[in-house]
């Protein structure tokens, strides 16, 4: 018997998310603002990812270099992939030619390597700086206190263009941290650092995207809410 894969749960999830996003935008934001929805694809098979792309989610978020490299050739060509996971410097070379944005820059060392690899292929790599807004040991991201130093250093790098901030706030009390990120984003914008633009504030996941929209997110990253529970097999 042939297995028929039914992706209608993705349709339903997407309908619900779209509805909640437009409700939140209407309630909390100016009419000329917009928010992008990213499909977070870790552990998700390419057929399901492509189904989401057909529904209109062309922006994909990948966490793991190895998994991404094994799946990317199967993704429909009209998708755009951004890297959102912890990135080891020795793996930058595997993704540099195919991701539009690296959202997880959190050290000078990593920025230097991205700059070096991007120069090799004649690319200016768009990046976001990830902020560890809850000061959690278990999480990536740079300390809030060190953020400006990192930004000023990356501003000098010819093959990197920082265009915003990313955060994964603590699960408990997320609202306070989303609010802190909004403030930080505004502060950095006001500082008008040369060669740094604050266009993207990437925050909000399946559990907190409505709140993230309330606090100015321009890009929400949805995994389980779209594809269902992850199977780590
Ligand atoms: C897994 C992941 C997400 C999505 O999380 P969900 O709770 O499944 O929506 C978003 N951002 C990053 C960086 C992730 O690793």
How does this structure look, described?
With 233 residues, this protein is an alpha/beta fold. Helix content is 39%, strand content 19%. The chain is built from 9 helices and 8 strands. The protein has an 8-stranded parallel β-sheet with strand order 7-6-5-4-3-2-1-8. It is globular and about 50 Å long. The two termini are 24 Å apart. The relative contact order is 0.16. Bound molecules: pyridoxal-5'-phosphate. Pyridoxal-5'-phosphate binds next to strand 8 and helix 9. The site of pyridoxal-5'-phosphate has 14 residues, from strand 8 and helix 9.
List keywords for this structure.
alpha/beta; 39% helix; binds pyridoxal-5'-phosphate
Please give the order of strands in the largest beta sheet: 7-6-5-4-3-2-1-8
Bound molecules: pyridoxal-5'-phosphate
| Shape category | globular
- From the alpha carbons, calculate the radius of gyration and give it in angstroms: 18 Å
Major β-sheet, in short? 8 strands, parallel
Low-pLDDT stretches are: none
Q: In which range does the helix fraction lie?
A: 25-40%
Strand content: 15-25%
Number of helices: 9
Secondary structure tally: strands = 8
Order of helices and strands: HEHEHEHEHEHEHEHEH
**Average pLDDT:** 96
Tell me the layout of helices and strands.
Blueprint: H1 8-28, E1 36-40, H2 46-55, E2 59-62, H3 65-71, E3 80-83, H4 92-95, E4 101-105, H5 108-120, E5 125-131, H6 147-155, E6 160-167, H7 174-191, E7 196-202, H8 209-214, E8 219-222, H9 224-227
Parallel strand pairs: 1-2, 1-8, 2-3, 3-4, 4-5, 5-6, 6-7
Pyridoxal-5'-phosphate is lined by residues 40, 42, 63, 84-85, 168, 205-207, 221-225.
């Amino acid at each position: 018997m042939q297995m028929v894969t039914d992706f209608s749960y993705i349709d339903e999830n997407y309908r619900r998310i779209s509805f909640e996003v437009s409700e939140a935008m209407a309630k909390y934001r100016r009419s000329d603002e917009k928010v992008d929805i990213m499909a977070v694809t870790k552990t998700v098979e390419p057929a399901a990812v492509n189904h989401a792309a057909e529904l209109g989610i062309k922006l994909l978020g990948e966490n793991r270099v190895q998994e991404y490299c094994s799946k990317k050739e199967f993704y429909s060509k009209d998708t755009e992939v951004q890297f959102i996971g912890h990135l080891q410097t020795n793996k930058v070379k595997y993704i540099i030619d195919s991701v539009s944005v690296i959202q997880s820059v959190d050290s000078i060392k990593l920025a230097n390597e991205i700059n070096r690899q991007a120069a090799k292929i004649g690319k200016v790599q768009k990046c976001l700086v990830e902020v560890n807004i809850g000061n959690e040991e278990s999480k990536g991201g740079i300390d809030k206190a060190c953020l400006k130093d990192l930004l000023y250093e990356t501003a000098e790098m010819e093959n990197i263009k920082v265009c915003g901030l990313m955060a994964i706030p603590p699960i408990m009390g997320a609202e306070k941290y989303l609010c802190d990120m909004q403030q930080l984003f505004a502060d950095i914008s006001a500082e008008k650092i040369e060669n740094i633009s604050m266009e993207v504030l990437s925050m909000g996941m399946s559990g907190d995207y409505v709140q993230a929209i309330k606090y100015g997110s321009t890009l929400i990253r949805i995994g389980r809410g779209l594809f269902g529970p992850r199977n780590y097999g």
